[in-house]
Here is the input.
Amino acid sequence: MGDTINFDYYYGIEAEQFSFYRVPRLLIKDERFKGLSSDAIKSKENKIMTMNQKKALYAFGSPDREATVNRFCTLAELAPDPAVKHFFLAIAKEMNAPTADRWYRCMFFNLRLEMEAYLRYEKAFERIVSGCPAAE
Here is the structure.
């Protein structure tokens, strides 16, 4: 990997607005990073989630970790697409880790706050792009 790669990141005070680390999708999908272990990307206590995982947890998650694991296992069973099945099972596996009880509840409520703000900003951006006035 002799090539230098430049990524856009949040720095300083901007970075403190997030509860969890944001990882470029490139680190997950790109062939150059396939040999990189997850331990190199995250520590035991820092959970890294893609926006798709956050959206899934926002839609199907519950304050009860075991209920969330059961929901994602059920979704995986119902999913006809193998990629979607794998996606849901990966989330269920992460939520079912032995140490998940320590961090899940706090992560869930912070995720709810973050996703509600994300959706609010997304709607505002759509109004700006379409030229509509701000909603009351």
In short: The helical segments are 25-29, 38-41, 51-60, 65-78, 82-95, 100-130. The chain has six helices and no strands. The radius of gyration is 17 Å. Residues 40-45 have pLDDT under 50 and may be disordered.
